[in-house]
Design a protein that fits this description.
It is a single chain. The protein is α+β, with helices and mostly antiparallel strands and about 450 residues long. The protein contains 10 helices and 12 strands. The strands form 3 sheets. Strands 2-1-5-4-3 form a 5-stranded antiparallel sheet, sandwiched between helices. Helix 1 runs antiparallel to helix 3 (about 150-200) and helix 4 runs antiparallel to helix 5 (about 270-300). The radius of gyration is 50 Å and the shape is rod-shaped. It starts with a helix and ends in a 6-residue tail after the last strand.
Length: about 450
């Protein structure tokens, strides 16, 4: 329990609150203490001033002042002494020290600084105060009024106030501690959910999500976590599918090659024409393997290479690629045309740009009709270049469209045709992502497809 975040949160917050409350309580108690004692000092200073004025008229009149229990002027137990400049008692309200010499720090300070001086003492367990007031006649000192009075009740009042403040503060601190523990637990609850979900992902259960609907930082973290988990699940599914597909793609041509050469193992008299026919099929399967390995190498290199950006003439690049692929177009008797609005320049990596063109055109040929058509267009759209390839081939179904850029994914129609490996469009998408381009696809099953590549940050120069 002591190691839980909610408990530590409550303890830390509680300690901070205790420090703040302690400072506040100390300030309140000190202010109350000063206010009460100051108020009492002012009261007795007023009495001392009154006695001083009376003594200035006649010393003997001061004998009528009394602060004892029977008096009406002040608190019980009080005493008034009137001293001359030699500290001799001229008048005593309790008639005990008349004629005696009385000296204390307060009388000396009052005479030296010509201001009221107050001191507090603990006398036989009783708390008393000594107030010395300088008497002046025409701004010339002629004596001291020394008043002693009991402050025990005043001290008890201050202590009572302090106990009340501390008691209330303790109740508040306990309430704050309990509330911080409760709300700390509620705040930490989503973190615990995220921790448990993370453990499940660590165990291999990718795709695990949490249901946290708060709109604060924790909610944002939960949304990010869910997206991360879903992406990990997608990657894991893709990895498994990749392993399955690559095994299948490699196994099929290898099995075909094995089946083609097995009949000739151990045979001495082999018909040359038949052997030549079989060797052509073996050569075809080897080409298929070579193309697959080349695509895999290209897909792997894309994760490592850094694009070399240069200024390219898009029309010239298309013409170059069309020339390279002309045997494919001739084999299927396909008509290829291209249009552009003048000279269009792009900033791109030449190798990557050609790789995108070759893969898109290769797919258009593979899944196009015998004697079909391919249309290529280029146009400026603001600061971007839109490069599109449209064919009238077999098209892509609506349910397959979201997945066509996944590695080794092939639509049912493409798989049935026995052409392709499902890597080409993955390479196109990776190049687009690396280069900051965008790809759009429109396709109708049985009518053909159109792929648009939006090349951003280009200029028509």
């Amino acid at each position: 329990m002591s190691k839980s975040i909610s408990f530590r949160f409550a303890v830390i917050f509680g300690l901070i609150f205790i420090i703040a409350v302690t400072l506040l309580d100390t300030s309140l108690i000190m202010l109350y203490y000063r206010h009460q004692f100051k108020k009492t000092e002012e009261f007795y200073s007023y009495i001392a001033g009154y006695v001083s004025k009376t003594a200035a008229v006649n010393w003997k009149l001061t004998n009528f002042f009394n602060l004892s229990e029977e008096g009406k002027t002040g608190s019980p137990g009080g005493r008034i002494l009137v001293l001359n400049l030699e500290s001799k008692v001229i008048a005593d309200s309790l008639k005990q020290f008349e004629g005696q010499i009385v000296q204390n720090p307060e009388t000396r300070e009052a005479l030296s600084k010509m201001q009221v001086s107050v001191g507090y003492y603990n006398y036989h367990g009783e708390r008393i105060a000594m107030l010395a007031y300088p008497m002046l006649r025409k701004n010339v000192p002629f004596g001291i009024v020394l008043i002693s009075y009991d402050v025990g009740d005043l001290w008890k009042d201050v202590l009572g106030f302090a106990y009340q403040v501390v008691g209330i503060s303790l109740v508040v601190v306990l309430a704050v501690f309990a509330a911080s523990y409760y709300f700390g637990g509620r705040i930490i609850k989503p973190v615990k959910c995220l921790t448990e979900a993370s453990k499940k992902i660590l165990e291999g259960k990718t795709g695990t999500t949490v249901e946290i609907l708060s709109k604060d930082e924790i909610g944002t973290l939960a949304k990010t976590f869910n997206r991360m988990s879903e992406e990990l699940h997608r990657i894991e599914v893709g990895r498994k599918r990749f392993a399955s597909n690559i095994s299948h793609e490699l196994k099929t041509p290898l099995a075909s090659i094995k089946a083609l050469i097995e009949p000739f193992i151990g045979e001495k008299n082999v018909d040359a024409e038949v052997l030549n026919e079989y060797l052509k099929d073996v050569d075809s399967e080897i080409d298929r393997l070579t193309g697959l390995v080349k695509s895999l190498v290209t897909a792997t290199r894309l994760e490592e290479i850094k694009p070399l950006i240069e200024k390219l003439n898009l029309k010239e690049e298309i013409i170059t690629v069309l020339r390279l692929l002309s045997p494919l177009f001739a084999e299927k008797e396909m008509k290829v045309d291209h249009t552009s609005s003048g000279e269009i320049w792009v900033y791109a990596d030449k190798t990557m740009l050609r790789e995108v063109m070759i893969n898109l055109l290769d797919n258009a040929v593979k899944y196009g009709k015998q004697g079909g058509a391919i249309h290529i267009s280029m146009q400026q759209s603001g600061s971007a270049i839109v490069f599109s390839i449209r064919d009238n081939g077999m098209g892509i179904s609506e349910q397959d469209l979201p997945n066509i850029f996944d590695n080794f994914y092939m639509a049912d129609e493409a798989r049935k045709s026995g052409m392709g490996s499902g890597i080409g469009l993955y390479i196109v998408k990776r190049i687009a992502d690396i280069s900051g381009w965008e790809i759009r696809v429109q396709s109708t099953l049985g009518k053909g497809s159109e792929f648009e590549v939006i090349i951003k940050n280009s200029a028509n120069l």
